[in-house]
Design brief:
homodimer; 180 residues; elongated; 3-stranded antiparallel sheet; DNA-binding
Chain lengths: 180, 180
Amino acid sequence: MSLRYGLLGLLAEGPASGYDLARRFQEMLGSVWPAQHPKIYSELNRMAGEGLIEVESEGPRRRKAYRITDAGLAAVRQWLTDGEVDHTMRLQPLLRSAFFWLMEPADLRAHLDREAAYYRGELEKYQAYAEAKDRGDFGDGPQTHSLRIAIEAAIRLYGALAEWAEWARDEDPPAGQRRR
Amino acid sequence: MSLRYGLLGLLAEGPASGYDLARRFQEMLGSVWPAQHPKIYSELNRMAGEGLIEVESEGPRRRKAYRITDAGLAAVRQWLTDGEVDHTMRLQPLLRSAFFWLMEPADLRAHLDREAAYYRGELEKYQAYAEAKDRGDFGDGPQTHSLRIAIEAAIRLYGALAEWAEWARDEDPPAGQRRR
DNA sequence: CTAGGACATGTCCTTAGGTACATATGAGAG
DNA sequence: CTCTCATATGTACCTAAGGACATGTCCTAG
C-alpha cells in the first residue's frame, strides 16, 4: 500500500492530477519508490471510491485534479505514525555482489567501475539538488524541509554505495578465482 | 528474473534442495532480496524444465537436491556480466521521509529513534558477521570473499541509514510545523 | 508407541508492479 | 490548415511476490 500513501502524501501538499502525480513521483520519489502511470491512475480511482480523495476540478484535455479529503489526510497520518515500517530492501546490485566469484576478474572490475560511476552520478545529482534547496531555491516550507531530509538520505546512500563499489574494485581479487 | 539468478548463483556453490535454498536465501540474501518458499519451489521447477538445473538426488522426506547444469552456470555468468543492472530501489522508510512534515514532532522523533535503533541493530549483526568471516570462521574460498564484499555493502548501507536517522532526529524540526 | 516438531514440497489465490497498447485533446510550428 | 508533440487518462494483460493453506515424512522425547 506504499504507493497509495505516497500519492496521498503528495496530495496533502495540494490538489494535483494523475499526470502531475506521475511526474512528481518519478522526479522526487522515483529513486526510492518507482511508480508507473497505470498504477497511479487505478490507485487514484480506487481511493476516490473509498472517499480518501475527491475530484477537485476538471480541466482542459480531460484533466482531472484530485484533492485529498479529511479521511485521506487522516489515513496518511495514521500510516506514518502507526503503520508498520517495511524495511525490506530489494537491491539487485547487492544480490549480484554475492556472486562476484563467478565473474572473470576483468569483467568484475569493469562492472564495479560502471557501478561506481553510476552511484557517483546519482550522488552528484542529489548533492546539487540539496545545494539548490539549501540556497532556498524551493522556499522553506515544512514540505521542503522533509524533502531535504529525504535527499540527505539519498546522498548518504549513494555515497556509501559509490565508496563501496570503489572499495570492492580495489580489493584483492579472490585467490581461488579461476577461468572458465 | 533476479530470484532465478540468485538461486542459480547459490547452486553454483554446490547442490542443494529447495528447502536449503530457501533458508540460505533468507539468511544471506534476505535483507537485499527477500524470497518465500513458494516462489523458490516454482522457480526451481521452471528452471528444471528449461534445463538450467537438474535433480541430483532424492533424499529422505521427499527431499530433492538440485544441481546446476552447464547451461545454468552459463546463464548466471551471462547475467552477471552482460545483464543490465537494475538500480531500482524500493525503500519504504525513505518514501516515508518525504512526508515527515505531516507528522507530529513527537511522533516523528519517536519514529526516527526506532528507525535508528533498527539500523544500528542490523549494522551490528553484519559487523559481527564480517568479523567472524575475517577471523576465517567460514574458510576463505572465492565465495566467502564475495560474501564478504556483500556484507561490506550491508555494513555501509545500514551505517549510512543509522547515521541519517540520527541526523534527521536531531535536526531542527520544520518551522512551519503545525498541530492537527 | 505415539505425539509433537522440524524437515520438505507443494497448491491456491490475491495483490502489486510493469509493459504495451489505445485514445482524446489542446498548443504551437510550418 | 494540418501535422506533430506534449498533455492527459485509461485498458489489457502478464509476471512477480507473497500470504494462507495442505500434505507428507522422519526423528525424538516422553
